[in-house]
């Protein structure tokens, strides 16, 4: 009887170990340099709105997920090179990107808006005023594309990260900045951003942000289902309210 009990215990442990070993694991790609949506805390852990959304989706799909960080410029090629399984890093859904990846339903809506020093009282967002001005934006973003396509007489200075763009703005190397409104909203509340403000109305009102997967990957539908579930059960709102006093859905 004693040996039989030991056998049952060993079998149970073996089954539990096998079930754990067989649990599905996924990797989420994140830039980790775009607060409050994604960045690293003092301990080097990836945090932010995107990370929390990714974790919530993984919980709904009942899978184990880990984070893989990637430089922004190469983040879509990294996805297609299978360095991670899905990309949740505030990526605008554009026709050009749809040629390289598939997107889920949008998980938030963004706007593009200029900021500049509060001391510049006459700052305008029209092409005539911005002619010859130096305006910063992050490279390979909707803001960077807008500057190059819509304001060809403006000098667009593009940066590898949003944080580096802010450094040049506060150092006086830029006349203004164009970026996502909700990223700028966070920065304007900081000590460095306190001397700056939004200028004019948003120049893009409805920039839809999606999660990217490789072309044809059925993971897209699973993510869409999980996204609908976290919106329905209040999880999405809790994450939203953690970072913003208004809805960004």
From TrEMBL:
For the Solute-binding protein family 3/N-terminal domain, which residue ranges apply?
25-247
Organism encoding this protein = Pseudomonas gessardii
Question: Which interval of the chain is the signal sequence?
Answer: 1-23
Under what name is this protein listed? Answer: Transporter substrate-binding domain-containing protein
Question: Which family is this protein grouped under?
Answer: Belongs to the bacterial solute-binding protein 3 family.
Question: InterPro entries attached here?
Answer: Solute-binding_3/MltF_N (IPR001638)
What Pfam family is a match, any one? SBP_bac_3
Judging by the UniProt lineage, the source's domain of life is Bacteria
Q: Which PANTHER family match?
A: ARGININE-BINDING EXTRACELLULAR PROTEIN ARTP (PTHR35936:SF17), MEMBRANE-BOUND LYTIC MUREIN TRANSGLYCOSYLASE F (PTHR35936)
UniProt keyword annotations, A-Z: Signal
Q: Does the keyword Transmembrane helix apply?
A: no
């Amino acid at each position: 009887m004693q040996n039989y009990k030991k056998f049952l215990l060993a079998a149970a442990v073996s089954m539990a170990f096998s079930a754990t070993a067989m649990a599905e694991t996924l990797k989420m790609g994140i830039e980790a340099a775009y607060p409050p949506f994604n960045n690293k805390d003092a301990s080097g852990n990836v945090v932010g709105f995107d990370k929390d959304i990714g974790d919530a989706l993984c919980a709904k799909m009942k899978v184990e997920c880990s984070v893989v960080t990637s430089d922004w410029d190469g983040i879509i090629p990294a996805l297609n090179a299978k360095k991670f399984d899905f990309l949740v890093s505030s990526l605008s859904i554009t026709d050009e990107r749809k040629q390289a990846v598939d997107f889920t339903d949008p998980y938030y809506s963004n706007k593009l808006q200029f900021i500049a020093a509060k001391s510049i009282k006459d700052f305008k967002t029209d092409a005539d005023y911005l002619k010859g001005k130096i305006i910063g934006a992050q490279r390979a973003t909707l803001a960077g594309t807008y500057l190059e396509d819509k304001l060809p007489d403006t000098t667009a200075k593009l940066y590898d990260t949003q944080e580096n763009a802010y450094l040049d703005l506060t150092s006086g190397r830029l006349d203004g900045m164009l970026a996502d409104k909700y990223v700028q909203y966070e920065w304007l509340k900081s000590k460095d951003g306190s001397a700056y403000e939004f200028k004019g109305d948003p120049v893009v009102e409805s920039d839809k942000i999606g999660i990217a997967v490789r072309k044809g990957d059925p993971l897209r539908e699973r993510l869409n289902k999980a996204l609908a579930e976290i919106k329905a059960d209040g999880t999405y709102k809790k994450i939203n309210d953690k970072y913003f006093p208004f809805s960004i859905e």
